[in-house]
Amino acid sequence: MPSLDSVLACLDLNIDRSVARLMELLRIPSISTDPAYAGHCRSAAEWLAKDLSAIGFEAAVRPTPGHPMVVAHDGPEGAPHVLFYGHYDVQPVVPLELWEDDPFDPKLKEMPDGTKRLTGRGTADDKGQLMTFIEAARAYKAETGGLPCRVTVLLEGEEESGSPSLNPFLDANKGELKADIALVCDTNMWDGETPAISTGLRGLVGEEVTIHAANQDLHSGYFGGAAANPIRVLSKILAALHDDNGRVTLPGFYDGVQELPEEVKKIWDGLGFDPAAFLGSVGLSVPAGEKDRAVLEQLWSRPTAEINGIFGGYTGEGFKTVIPAEAFAKVSFRLVAGQDPDKIRAAFRAFVEERLPADCTASFSPHGGSPAIQLPFDSPYLDTARAALSTEWEKPAVMIAMGGSIPVVGEFKSRLGMESLLIGFGLGDDRIHSPNEKYELKSFHKGQRSWARVLDAIGRMR
Ligand code: BES
Ligand code: MN
């Protein structure tokens, strides 16, 4: 395959330039959840549309009521058509003091073992990942004059904040976006040598709950003893969400949840997962989930309830003796196949309401809801991509699941009738959503080479 070989050689030759381009994108602080960064989100979208245009895509920044999308098209009509999806928005960077460097001043660092990594917010989630695809397309065009498939690119700017504009955008642009298969680059490898295709993702329901008590903050000596304390009320309710065996206590929570099919269990058992090493890598040792479940099951095929944030009262330096008027928590549920996001949200609200003592009220605001995803194991695209990945990496590609959520995958299926292939090059220690996020240079480089191979192979599928 002389043309593919020259594309791969081109990627090798231009790795420094591709790193420099990624760093430009990483310097734009496109935090989607904070309205103060809206201008930067727009700049990131513009940067990407410009880069895609420079490669020869017909690319545009497309407005939404929130942060814009980038949509681009290229490649021969009539060839197999892929929709590539990635997101250019990033998570917030607090707590800033835990970062070794400015999160938006990316660095290429050499480690003591000689490996190199890119550091900074968005390196792995998802700017570094999405640029692996764009670099592959760039090299393919440069070397062969065109793309092997019809390629539509869709880059979202609200993935990390619940994708409020996504569904209307998909509905309004169905004809333009529907392809034979969606390629999503926002997941992990199995390990640093073993590429992976993810066939399952958990769903997500987010809720912010506020408990209101007195109509003002109170002196905790003058009123203490007589006044309801909303933090105490909130803590008690949240503590009741799990029983002593780690099961979630919301009525109906496990309705519809299935046991793992035997064939999937076999695939997972074959992966050789090491729970002690997994927990050890983040300073933990004892699995804290449902007691009767293996760790991989806890992560990939069982639903959870988590408290992601809790605040209220005085949290600054020193001490203030106060009984606050309100207390807040951000709670989320990871869902598996069979669970309905709307029912889980309603069950949580009822659970809180039922436990409110006199003089306390609760208010809620929803933060996204998406069902779990199960992709087919018997797709020809899966076989093709698996073979292509296995040629590039040291070890053959494996099929895994991910405990995280990528709501767009479900929407592609339900709104556009399109399946997805989830191929990503992140690693478990990339610290996504945390301080000191990183992306291995190997992931970035071999990720580019992987996409060149996958595109080439899909192009031959007609
Ligand atoms: N890239 C992640 C999903 C992911 C997490 C893939 C871990 C592989 C391993 C994605 O950007 C993400 O974080 N999604 C959010 C979705 C939410 C904000 C709607 C998540 O899973 O929390
Ligand atoms: Mn992501």
Automatic annotation (TrEMBL):
Keyword vocabulary terms for this entry: Hydrolase, Metal-binding, Protease
Pfam families according to UniProt: M20_dimer, Peptidase_M20
Statement: the UniProt record of this protein carries the keyword Oxidoreductase: no
One GO-annotated biological process of the protein: proteolysis
GO terms for MF: metal ion binding; peptidase activity
Domain Peptidase M20 dimerisation: 199-359
Family matches, as SUPFAM superfamilies: Zn-dependent exopeptidases
Keyword Metal-binding: yes
Top-level division of the source organism's lineage: Bacteria
Protein name, as recorded: Acetylornithine deacetylase/Succinyl-diaminopimelate desuccinylase
